[in-house]
Amino acid sequence: MRVSTGLLATLMFVVGIALSRPVSGQPSYDILIENGRVLDGSGNPWGRADVAVRDGEIAAVGELSEATADTVLNADGLYVAPGFIDVHSHAGGGLTTASLSAVRPQLAQGITTVIINPDGGGAVDLAAQQDSLREDGLGVNVGQLVPHGAIREEVMGLSDRAPTEEELAEMKALVREGMEAGGLGLSSGPFYVPGSYAETEEFIATASVAAEYGGVYQSHIRDESNYTVGLLAAVDEVIEIAREADLPGIVTHIKALGPPVWGFSAAVEHRVERARAEGVEVFADQYPYTASATTLTAALVPRWAQSGGRDSLLHRLDQDDLRARIRDDMTTNLERRGGTGRIQFRSFAPDSSIEGKTLAEVASKRQEAPLTTVLHLIEQATPGIVSYNMLDEDVGRFMRQPWTMTSSDGGLVQRGDGVPHPRNYGAFPRKLGRYARDQGVIDLGFAVRSMTQLSASVMGLPDRGRIQPGAAADLVVFDLDDVHDPATFRAPHQLSEGMVHVLVNGRLAIHDGTFTGELHGRVLRARPE
Ligand SMILES: [Zn+2]
Q1: Contact at 8 Å (CB) between 226 and 336?
Q2: How far apart are the CA of 251 and the centre of ligand 1, in A?
Q3: For residue 88, how far is its CA from the centre of ligand 1 (angstroms)?
Q4: How remote is the CA of residue 183 from the centroid of ligand 1, in Å?
Q5: pLDDT at residue 17 in the model
Q6: Distance (Å, whole) CA 459 – CA 453
Q7: Distance 231 CA to ligand 1 centre (A)
Q8: How much is the pLDDT for 424?
Q9: How many Å lie between the centroid of ligand 1 and the Cα of residue 191?
Q10: Distance from Cα 288 to the centre of ligand 1, integer Å
Q11: Which residues does residue 477 pair with via DSSP β-bridges, in sequence order?
Q12: How is residue 252 annotated by DSSP?
């Protein structure tokens, strides 16, 4: 019988997987992780197994004590999980900076894939963005969303109106281009300018294009509080878009923001469950903190005052009657945020001395009314803020939902970049350590699933987020006792602890707790139809 060499190679490969035998005295695997407690990403409790890696893929899982490998990692007492997927990441900009491409804040959290261009913002030209991402190498894998807001701005500026038929056609064409280039779906930010100027119909129309490519619709919803339509109507809008455009809808960084909606997590849960029962695919993602981060302008300045952009806002602030109206609206918005003690500055280039201080502290030092301070600061620049506005009870309820993924909403930061939200450094270990191990809000397997297999399935990355032969070898090996997020709101620039080994596409990015500096990340495309 004649056997083609191709078939023979395939047979040997299959036999190799099945029996894990060294082939002709050579080590059979690149890396062998021995004797770990394997959390495979499904949500199941751990089971003891060896995990073998070859050519960037998981080659075998099981009892592999006879196997040999170039590098053997003893995982006795440690947990082995798929590399974590951050489904809402602002790392896109930093990844194109050579000094940041080593992505230490992400890798120290066990993050091996980031999904960028969230909230409707980011690059319109995904192909060009891929080129710049690849230029200096990537420390993690990157998936891209197609940003609705940036596309809208490119087509029609920051004007507060519906698009004409031609403009909508142009926007849809740009969404199509992005999806053709490998986008995983459409991101939107109807809370922000210019997304807030878009009606639901516009999101349905653009999301329908993403749906043709099997994409998702991920939205920073119109209102996480009671600013405009209210939290519940904003969740309903995502559900409506998911239903009408026929694609998975994701309420990103789900939360109940501010005293007026505290406790609303139960009502949100019911709405999502009802939609799912009706056959609408709805998901959420979440970062595990009771504070959010945004800009002072986005938090306090009414949207009507921002129409036309920053210059128009400044122009309005120069007119006494409009300034008074803006200030009036800001009073209510400040109450929604829980008052001056719950807003803390994280970045302000003209005066870094206010970074890390609350609005109450800064205003009192200046001996000004807080809103006077706010207006003065906004006239100089756009201050970044951290806003303490959530209840742990709501955070816990959202976290326990089987449809909630994990995200950081963080980016690439380093010492010197103000006093950013600690989620940039600690989101994933915080969920594993504080919420799963210490507080038992969720169990460990469920937590790992929310950052691996669930996210990979929703985002259309079927070969990631799971430990099984043939999957990409993005892996983390962690010491649960050591998993810790030292980053705090006052001192955020601290890397997370507990990740012993991190593999990106089968290569060690962290080895024995030390960064290797290797750049083996890739730009990921969604599953071909
Ligand atoms: Zn957002």
Answers
A1: yes
A2: 10
A3: 8
A4: 18
A5: 47
A6: 10
A7: 14
A8: 96
A9: 8
A10: 14
A11: 80, 501
A12: T
Residue 178 vs residues 240, 464, 523: alpha-carbon distances, Å: 23, 22, 14
Which positions of the chain have pLDDT values less than 50?
1-23, 529
Consecutive H or E run containing 515: strand 514-515
Taking alpha carbons only, the member of 440, 458, 475 closest to residue 402 is 458
Q: Tokens in use for 219? A: 């939205």
- Find the 12 Cα to ligand 1 centroid distance in Å: 49
How far away, in angstroms, is 218 Cα from ligand 1 center?
Answer: 10
Residue 293 Cα, ligand 1 centroid: separation in angstroms? 9
Amino acid at 385: I
Q: Are 255 and 337 a contacting pair, CB within 8 Å?
A: no
Amino acid identity, residue 241? I
CA of 340 to the centre of ligand 1 (A): 22
Length of the chain: 529
Q: What is the pLDDT of residue 100?
A: 75
Cα–Cα distance for residue pair 94/408, rounded to 1 Å = 15
- Whole-number Å distance, alpha carbon 145 to ligand 1 midpoint, is 13
The number of beta carbons lying within 10 Å of the beta carbon of residue 17 is 17
Say which residue the tokens 């040997």 belong to.
Answer: 12
* Model pLDDT for residues 182-201, shown as the tens digit of each residue: 999 999 999 999 999 999 99
How many Å apart are CA 517 and CA 444, to the nearest integer? 29
Question: Residue 14, class by beta-carbon neighbours within 10 Å (0-12 exposed, 13-18 middle, 19+ buried)?
Answer: exposed
pLDDT of 476 reads 98
Kindly give the distance from the C-alpha atom of residue 378 to the centroid of ligand 1, in angstroms, as a whole number: 20
What structural domains does the chain harbor?
A: 1-81+467-481+497-520 (2.30.40.10), 84-290+390-451 (3.20.20.140), 294-387 (no CATH)
* Cα 482 to ligand 1 centroid, rounded to whole Å: 30
Q: Rounded to the nearest whole angstrom, what is the distance from the C-alpha of residue 409 to the centroid of ligand 1?
A: 7
The answer to whether 333 and 299 are in contact (CB under 8 A) is yes
